[in-house]
């Protein structure tokens, strides 16, 4: 297997109490050129994360003691760790349970039993997005504005009435995509392609639900400006044009 040059030096923490799974995942990620650490409990994971921030965390939801969800909540409530992308491992059968993980702020998830190859592809995709290797959108460094909502593309900053809004990298890309295509309806698949780099050919129902969950979170964070993101039933989302308000 070729070692991807772009994966060099990226550090990944694998949090999984099942030692065989942790070792297998760590082995395959290491073969891709990632530097991998494993943690068998949530407590050990949080210690490791705060000691030396990883570039990505593969997090099993089912852990003894502190659950994966609790680890995720803890990461997302701390400004030092909030931006670290998280890929969840979930054994939960119910779709709703998996969706909860995304609502807590995970970037993506794979359901057990998973193919390690798929997991590695998801990790690669998340890190590509984190590095901003998305299809370049013209005019980097621009300010996108809708009323009192202001998005600074270069600074990766969003403010509403001058107050900073804390968005995850995925929420930021989602908002940016919607703002740049203001007034035009975007399908969930289009949004997945732009904000998640998920090939629309492989986007499945779970993936498209992911978009809904992120839009819901984004609306919540935008408060009153969240109304600007309209649901176009059966199709996708659209950022309202100013003239219609
Ligand atoms: Ca487990």
Give your account of this protein's structure.
The chain has 245 residues and is an alpha/beta fold. The protein folds into two domains: 2-130, Response regulator (Rossmann fold), CATH 3.40.50.2300; 143-239, Winged helix-like DNA-binding domain superfamily/Winged helix DNA-binding domain (Arc Repressor Mutant, subunit A, Orthogonal Bundle), CATH 1.10.10. It is 39% helix and 20% strand. It has eight helices and twelve strands. The chain has helices spanning 19-31, 42-51, 68-76, 95-103, 116-130, 169-180, 188-196, 205-222; strands at 11-15, 35-39, 56-60, 86-90, 108-111, 143-146, 149-152, 157-160, 163-165, 186-187, 229-232, 236-239. Strands 2-1-3-4-5 form a five-stranded parallel β-sheet, sandwiched between helices. The radius of gyration is 18 Å and the shape is globular. The model is unreliable at 1-7 and 133-140 (pLDDT under 50). Calcium ion binds at residues 16-18, 60, 62-63.
């Amino acid at each position: 297997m070729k070692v991807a040059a772009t994966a060099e030096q990226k550090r990944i923490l694998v949090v999984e109490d099942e030692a065989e799974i942790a070792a297998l995942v760590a082995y395959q990620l290491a073969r891709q050129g990632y530097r991998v650490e494993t943690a068998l409990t949530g407590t050990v994971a949080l210690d490791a994360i705060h000691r030396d921030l990883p570039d990505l965390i593969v997090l099993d939801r089912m852990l003894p003691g502190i659950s994966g969800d609790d680890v995720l909540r803890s990461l997302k409530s701390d400004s030092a760790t909030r931006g670290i992308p998280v890929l969840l491992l979930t054994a939960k059968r119910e779709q709703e349970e998996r969706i909860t993980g995304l609502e807590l702020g995970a970037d993506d998830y794979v359901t057990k039993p998973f193919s390690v190859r798929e997991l590695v592809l998801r990790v690669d995709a998340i890190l590509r997005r984190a590095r901003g290797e998305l299809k370049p959108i013209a005019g980097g460094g621009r300010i996108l504005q809708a009323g009192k909502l202001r998005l600074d593309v270069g600074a990766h900053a969003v403010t509403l009435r001058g107050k900073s809004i804390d968005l995850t990298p995925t929420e930021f890309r989602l908002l940016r995509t919607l703002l740049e295509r203001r007034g035009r309806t975007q399908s969930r698949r289009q949004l997945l392609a732009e904000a998640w780099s998920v090939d629309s050919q492989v986007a499945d129902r779970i993936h498209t639900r992911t978009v809904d969950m992120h839009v819901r979170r984004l609306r919540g964070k935008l408060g009153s400006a969240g109304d600007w993101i309209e649901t176009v039933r059966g199709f996708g989302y659209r950022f309202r044009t100013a003239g219609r308000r």
